[in-house]
Design brief:
about 400 residues; alpha/beta; Rossmann fold; 2 domains; 5-stranded parallel β-sheet; elongated
Length: about 400
């Protein structure tokens, strides 16, 4: 799984109750294809043993500077790491790291590594709020380390609900991925992604919509954010969880989505229009629920606005615009027509009738049509891989400008 496959992650675990979550983080990283070198501080071994991490990662666990046969381990693991994550990072560990101490294997490795480092603080809320801890956190940031702010929630022994709780492993996993892709051309770029369907009311309880789940758009937003972009996700009702990282703006109707896109486009470097907004709405939505026994022979429809076509007048100069074309016949030819009519840099075409592609599935088979006439057909792939292929194209375009 990009960007973890065959990458080396140094996972440092210090002595806090949240270290049980680190075992699951180690598992997530390993399943994604990373080689995970776990370093436990002496205090961490009081909470969770080395054998747990060895079983989850399939690799030896490092615990001390003077372990037999492990001379200079801190240099070896520090030099081989593509990224370092300290989770949990206790108040004590942060204080020692901020002071530049190297009194155990983990802090010695921190001084020896050239890899990007992510600290994940976890402690009692009063300890996190203490002025000394905050100074240490700020100093660590000034040294170039990244800190993931702690969550709010129940702490150890049922204490408090203020900030101090370690974020969930899935959140940390996402931030480690962002750490690994920090040199992307998308880093610090403003990317707007649309996802999901829209709903057009027929009456107060019924609506017109489609089968879109939002999976494709969410996958694109996740990939763009992982590459360092500032991602604004504009989404209709989603059938999947909102992604970690991007800013989410939820909308309901096609008009709502059109307004949100127009506002966001003013600062966008990239727009990826992966949503499936409804093409039609009720011409005159009923103000009261239409009774089942009411005489209703037909429903008058009106067209909704073409959001992507309307962006032509609001696009920033030099921005990259990507559209989607979900078709049921003559997919490529219809895609070419949309590419020209809507003045796109790239259109992603797929056939809704093809097995494993289209709405509400985890895979897709797409064809890329570019402004310069280039055509590329991809095999059936997970939507996460399709998202990466789209953004690889966007990155190549950015490099060429």
């Amino acid at each position: 799984m990009r960007p973890f496959d065959q990458r080396r992650i140094l996972l440092g675990v210090s002595g806090g109750i949240a270290s049980y979550k680190s075992a699951y983080l180690a598992r997530l990283l390993t399943k994604a294809g990373a080689d995970v070198d776990v370093v436990l501080t002496r205090a961490a071994t009081e909470f969770v043993g080395p054998v747990t991490f060895e079983a989850l990662t399939g690799r030896p666990v490092h615990t001390g500077l003077f372990d037999p046969g492990r001379a200079l381990d801190h240099i070896k693991i520090a030099k081989s790491a593509d990224a370092v994550v300290i989770a949990p990072a206790t108040a004590d560990l942060m204080a020692r790291a901020a002071a530049g101490q190297a009194d155990d294997l983990l802090t010695a490795a921190l001084l020896a590594t050239q890899a990007p480092v992510l600290f994940v603080p976890a402690m009692n809320d009063m300890m996190w709020a203490h002025a000394q801890t905050q100074r240490n956190a700020e100093h660590l940031r000034s040294l170039g380390y990244r800190l993931l702010e702690p969550d709010e929630g129940m702490l150890a022994a049922g204490e408090g609900s203020g900030p101090g709780r370690m974020p969930e492993p899935e959140t940390i996993f996402a931030y480690v991925g962002r750490l690994l892709e920090q040199r992307s051309p998308l880093a610090s770029r403003r990317v707007v992604v649309t996802a999901g369907p829209t709903r057009e009311p027929i009456d107060p309880v019924r609506f017109l919509s489609n089968h879109s789940s939002g999976k494709m758009g969410v996958a694109i937003a996740e990939s763009a954010w992982r590459r360092g972009a500032d991602v604004h996700l504009i989404a209709g009702p989603l059938a999947v969880a909102a992604p970690i990282g991007p800013t989410l703006e939820q909308v309901e109707t096609t008009d709502d989505m059109a307004r949100a896109v127009e506002q966001a486009l003013a600062t966008a470097d990239v727009l990826v229009m992966a949503a499936a907004p409804a093409d039609f709405r009720a011409a005159a939505p009923a103000k009261q629920k239409i009774k089942k026994d009411a005489s209703l022979d037909s429903l008058a429809l009106a067209r909704t606005p073409d959001i992507l076509a309307a962006t032509k007048r609001a696009r920033r100069k030099g921005s990259i615009i990507v559209g989607f074309a979900l078709e049921t016949n003559d997919a490529v030819e219809n895609g070419r027509a949309k590419l020209r009519a809507k003045e796109l840099d790239l259109i992603v075409v797929n056939d809704a009738t093809e097995a494993g592609a289209g709405f509400a599935v985890d895979t897709n088979r797409v064809t890329f049509l570019a402004r310069n006439g280039e055509e590329e057909r991809l095999p059936l792939l997970p939507k996460s891989d399709v998202a990466d292929a789209i953004l690889d194209r966007v990155e190549a375009e950015l490099r060429g400008r």
